[in-house]
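notes to self, project folder thing:

trying the whole complex as one job this time. last attempt i did each chain seperately and stitching them together was a nightmare. two parts in total, labels are on each line so i dont mix them up again. if this works i'll redo the older ones the same way
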Amino acid sequence: MRALVAVKRVIDYAVKVRVKPDKSGVELNNIKMSMNPFCEIAVEEGVRLKEAGTLSELVAVSCGPDKSQESLRQALAMGADRAILLKTDYRTDMELQPLAVAKLLKKMVEKEDPMVVLLGKQAIDDDSNQTGQLLAGMLGWPQATFASKLAFNSGLTGVDVTREVDAGLQTISLKLPCVVTCDLRLNQPRYATLPNLMKAKKKPLEVVDAASLGVDMSPRLEYLSVEEPPKREGGRKVDSVDELLDKLRNEAKVLA
Amino acid sequence: MLKALRFAPSRFGRCFSTLVVAEHTQKGLHPATLSAINAAKKLQDDICVLVAGSGATEAAQEAAKLQGVSKVLHVDAPAYQYPVADQMANLLVAMQQKSSFASIMGPVSSLLKDVFPRLAGALDVQPLTDVMDIKSSDTFVRPTYAGNAIATVRSKDPVKVFTVRPTSFPTDGLEGGSAPVEPVTPPEGQPMVEFVKEEHAHDDKPQLATAKTVVSGGRGLRSKEGFDTVLDPLCQKLNAAMGASRAAVDAGFVPNDMQVGQTGKVVAPDLYLAVGISGAIQHLAGMKDSKTIVAINKDGEAPIFQVADYGLVADLFEAVPEMTDKVAQ
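result (full assembly):
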């Protein structure tokens, strides 16, 4: 059984992003980029499913600029078998939007014929939390979002997924093929070791011009401006618990 | 086919209307739904509210009494007791084909985050998540990069599908409406996903994502016992949800569904109390939109004090129990 795993290269989660003075977006030049943390979890899950014998092949796919190959190499070093880059020069945090990514991934699903598509629940740049659901809807496949546990049945015809929902945990049962988006609690991704990074260089990585797939990638949302959030005026210190409670009751009025 | 239907005459008096998908329980509407209706008013269209559930009559009646609501559409079917994404998306596609809404929206919730993109895919439109402000019928403000960059975007799509951030819109000022409740027959067919069970881990506490008050602990609590014996009593007293920093989760003090931050939950309560949390960027991204932020930390130089409205430099093992004693039940 084959699985596709979608990965996105984003600004590293530990970096404080800087908004450009002309409000056209955030600065991406000379900024540390990494694989989106939720995508790492999706890759890790795919690798674990391979190790457990559930999957026979794990194919990593990314949509974005040439540099996205770095994230695909990381996925290969973690244990993916091969990788495909759908190359486009659209900015992936603004211009290449989830609707277009889902359409591109759909093309890859049609080509690769997987039984499962794994994605992160959201990218930490555009924070959309949409691509997996859009893809599942387009394919007419069942979806399980915010997964924190996967249990495939022995015949590999279905999977029970525990999901992180507002109320706690919800378990749903899906038939394959299906789309799963991964939440933080699903697993702890492994580090790509140096020997594995070296080996990953020999694994196949196919680069496809995304425009050749005949998908309308034009952005549906036009960014009018990107601005810094209003600064908080913090820094006021109080001297005692009594003073703190007094301020919360009488000044901020958030305590009874 | 959908394209043709979009321009079909509407059944409503006006050409355009907004569909608000309600979040509710058996007992009534979730307060987030009220925020969503106040947000919907900014679109200046007729507002229809969908209450889909099993026997959720009270929620439907409550929605009908909200000022500004012109109609409540009520699906009452056993299959909707635990709605799943494909079922809800199919329902909304059918409703859209019939009524050609200009906007379909609702509060950010795990259900609508699951459903709306699927719906949008079927309508071939790009949805929007977590809208903080509505500038006009096609221009929206939303946070990106975990709230570190605020984007204003214009949607070119004929139907706007979006979720709104409840804490960005008020819940009051909606008294005095009287809208009709109209039953809606959901489309036939079995959902593709079978609901198995739901476990409510923290039933005694409000949910982290929607709580009015959040008390979060960091590595400063030193252990799981620190959370249980120091933080938990204060949470109980304040009826607060308990959160944690990534450091506390990584140290194994608490499970990671409690993590507040860019890779955990993003919260914006009225009161956020950070206890023993230094205030790494990762954490700030998850809570800096809270109305009032309080920090209790031994280290007066901790970055959390730069965003805290009120900071107390003190040993949390003394200050928190004292606070717990002095807070009114």
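what i see at first glance: Chain A touches chain B through 85 residues (CB under 8 Å).
need to look closer tmrw
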